[in-house]
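quick q for whoever's on today - can somebody do inverse folding on this one?? i tried earlier but teh output was garbage lol. tokens:
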């Protein structure tokens, strides 16, 4: 990342890569976790929020003293709230009660104006995503704000190409597999495409909720894995990038996130749990001598209420 960014924004990126010591069975490939919880808001989304804002500043879509609007399951909103606070932009965020309350509180604390769309089931669905997008569109039309529009905004790909370069450098180019859950698809696509440019033999596995397996041709459904599984094939998804799409159920992902905390001391959310479920399957297939990288997408401190009942 560049060194001329103001204050805390200079701390985005260059996160650690940590090898798992206890979760991985003997006879499997080793698994390295990219600790995106080290970013200022505790999430990988800091990378894409900064990339989208800087691109809009560079081409004049966002001017000094301007306003920003976005729809989000939470982490993108928190990251945009951080960047907007530092850069002095007014921010309107459309979110929902389907997502972790901690994220909503964090956005408010950083100064975002929050617009909450109610979810009837308290779960993520395609209908909820579309309702949030429509609310953001109306706010944009009413206020003239710059709409980051994360499901369509390709500016964020650059942030994840940079993350892929970090991974390549940290592993010394010794990486055989990469596993990541898909939300907007920008992070998986940007990282995977750059890794494949480096070595076209790297196995690339995308992860989606088993309850809503739309990327693999299934029907949309409701799930509780924050930040992934929009319920439809998102615009930035690109067929052919992933070698395989791995479905992981919400309860499976949550159980694995708890194991990660209790066996490795890494406390992350359910999307990270989903990453680990899929990474362990790939590790068993590739076997000893291979190296797999996956993401710790964010800190589990964003989900304390959700994990409290299982503690």
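ok took a stab at it. sequence:
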């Amino acid at each position: 990342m560049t060194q001329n960014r103001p204050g805390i924004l200079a701390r985005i990126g260059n996160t650690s890569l940590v090898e798992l010591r206890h979760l991985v069975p003997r006879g499997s490939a080793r698994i390295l976790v990219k600790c995106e919880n080290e970013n200022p808001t505790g999430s990988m989304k800091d990378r894409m929020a900064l990339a989208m804002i800087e691109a809009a500043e560079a081409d004049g879509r966002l001017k000094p003293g301007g306003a920003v609007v976005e729809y989000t399951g939470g982490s993108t909103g928190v990251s945009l709230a951080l960047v907007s606070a530092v850069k002095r932009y007014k921010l309107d965020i459309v979110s929902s009660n389907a997502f972790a309350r901690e994220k909503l509180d964090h956005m408010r604390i950083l100064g975002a104006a929050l617009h909450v769309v109610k979810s009837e089931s308290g779960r993520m669905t395609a209908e909820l995503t579309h309702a949030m997008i429509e609310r953001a569109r109306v706010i944009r039309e009413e206020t003239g704000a710059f709409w980051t529009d994360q499901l369509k905004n390709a500016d964020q790909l650059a942030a994840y190409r940079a993350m892929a370069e970090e991974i390549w450098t940290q592993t010394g180019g010794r990486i055989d597999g990469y596993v990541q859950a898909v939300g907007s698809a920008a992070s998986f696509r940007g990282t995977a495409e750059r890794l494949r440019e480096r070595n076209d033999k790297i196995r690339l596995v995308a992860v989606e909720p088993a309850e809503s397996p739309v990327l693999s041709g299934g029907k949309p459904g409701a799930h509780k894995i924050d930040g992934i599984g929009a319920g439809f094939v998102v615009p930035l998804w690109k067929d052919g990038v992933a070698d395989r799409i791995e479905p992981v159920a919400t309860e499976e992902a949550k159980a694995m996130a708890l194991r990660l905390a209790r066996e490795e001391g890494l406390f992350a959310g359910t999307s990270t749990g989903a990453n680990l479920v899929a990474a362990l399957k790939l590790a068993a297939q590739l076997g000893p001598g291979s190296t797999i990288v996956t993401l710790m997408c964010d800190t589990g401190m964003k989900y304390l209420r959700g994990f409290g009942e299982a503690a």
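fwiw Residues 7-38+160-308 form a domain with the Rossmann fold fold (CATH 3.40.50.1100). also DSSP finds nine helices and ten strands in the chain. so keep that in mind when u check it
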